[in-house]
Design goal:
about 400 residues; alpha/beta; six-stranded mixed sheet; 28 strands; about 20% helix; binds adenosine monophosphate; binds magnesium ion
Length: about 400
């Protein structure tokens, strides 16, 4: 059996790195930067006021309260026409450029103004007070987003503020298909005896959608050599990555293995993990192929452990694995000590904020209800065998749960 880490390393070494291009920052959410995004401008672009108030010469205000004459009003978006000299002030709004000569802004709440041409300054202010200096946030040459980062809404905002369109990695097109004579469309009205609904393809296409990559859906392919051959050929022609589910385990009475052996260089692995032991990896015409086991939870875990990291790696992401945290097991469990076992768990927080894991339901690799409701996968390493309530356990955060109610 192949250890999980070795299998993943082999896959990452084999998959190609995709090209890149400039993307409009609008719509770049989820894309991965292929190069560092670098600022070309100062931000703020000019010294401006951080408050609504009065731009003053700070040294004038040492003996506040005192009265200054107001020379003009400057709103955000306008440009001051007059400088501030000793004894004068400009009424200024947040974001408006500082008039020359002024070196501080007295907030409106520290003033009194009965007349438009005068203001009473109630409090002294230090030079530089309430000014946002040019370049205080960003200067030309600053790295806005490093290379290999998956862009979030916050990055998009930062890039937009600097007027920078990021260079991002191309997206791989991923072809997916479900194989097996027993598999029928998920919307089938009434299941004939011996048939089951196709869930793998839906799960995969949704998981790929979460990754933001385009999918070519080749549907359900029966255990027929000619149809399978055709489907895999089409997949490799149309996509940068091919995923199929089913037909890769030992006892399989089907043609997936035969056809993959014929069409490409594909290895059939037994990975020391559970679920997800049988797994095929290789290439058809240089297009990476992942043959995922048919059991839905095995499909998911194999996708998480191998396919998702591989796709992120192809796009040059520097972080390709889910976050792992340490929590404690809330119950005794016995696992197969020859494998890395992924347990579907629900998390609660104890009084000191430690995550406590309880199995979310049955752990059979066909049992999707416990997968759907899980907050995390508890990772039980090879050689562990059993965990007792209270033992530390690694939790792989397949999805961080929203942890607080809105009114906390
Ligand atoms: P296999 O890997 O082809 O031996 O399939 C293992 C188990 O997974 C069998 O019980 C299959 O019926 C089931 N299975 C295979 N493909 C799918 C699918 N697309 N959706 C749901 N279950 C599946
Ligand atoms: Mg099968």
């Amino acid at each position: 059996m192949k250890q999980l880490a070795d299998a993943r390393a082999e896959i990452l070494a084999a998959v190609p790195r995709l090209g890149s291009g400039v993307a409009d920052v609008d719509g770049s959410i989820g894309r991965i930067t292929a190069e560092a995004a670098v600022a070309r401008e100062f931000n703020p672009p000019f010294d401006n006021s951080a408050m609504d108030g009065y731009a003053v010469v700070a040294s004038d205000c040492v003996d506040a309260p005192l009265t200054l004459s107001v020379n003009e009003d400057t709103a955000a978006g306008s440009v001051p026409t007059m400088g501030v000299v000793s004894g004068t002030a400009t009424r200024i709004m947040t974001g408006a450029p500082m008039p020359t000569g002024a070196d501080a802004v007295v907030p409106v709440e520290d003033t009194e103004s009965g007349r438009t041409d005068e203001v009473r300054i109630l409090k002294a202010i230090d030079a530089g007070g309430n000014i946002r200096p040019r370049g205080g946030d960003i200067s030309p040459g600053d790295v806005l987003v490093a290379a290999g980062v998956r862009l979030t809404a916050r990055h998009v905002g930062s890039l937009a503020s600097a007027g920078v369109n990021p260079v991002v990695s191309d997206l791989p097109t991923v072809a997916i298909m479900s194989t097996g004579d027993e598999i029928v469309g998920y919307s089938t009205r009434e299941l004939k005896p011996g048939t089951i609904r196709d869930s793998n393809r839906l799960l995969l296409s949704a998981a790929l959608e979460e990754l933001g990559v385009p999918v070519v859906d080749l549907g359900i392919v029966g255990d027929d050599p000619d149809v399978l051959r055709d489907a895999y050929r089409q997949a490799a022609d149309q996509a940068d990555v091919v995923l199929s589910t089913g037909g890769v385990s030992m006892g399989d009475y089907d043609f997936v293995k035969q056809i993959l052996g014929e069409l490409g260089t594909v290895d059939f692995w037994k990975v020391a993990m559970q679920p997800g032991k049988p797994f095929a990896f290789g290439a058809i015409d240089d297009v990476p192929l992942f043959g995922l086991p048919g059991n839905p939870v095995s499909t998911f875990v194999s996708f998480e452990q191998f396919v998702r990291p591989a796709i992120l790696h192809m796009m040059g992401a520097s972080r390709i694995l889910r976050h792992q945290i340490v929590g404690i097991m809330g119950e005794d469990v016995a696992t197969n000590d020859a494998k890395t076992v992924f347990l579907r768990v629900l998390l609660t927080e104890d009084s000191d904020g430690t995550y406590v894991a309880l199995q979310s339901g049955g752990q059979g690799s066909n049992m999707q209800s416990s997968l759907a409701s899980a907050d995390a996968l508890a990772v039980v390493p090879v050689g562990t065998g059993s965990l007792s309530a209270g033992d530390d356990v690694t939790l792989e955060m397949i999805q961080w749960p929203e942890g607080r109610t809105s009114d906390e």
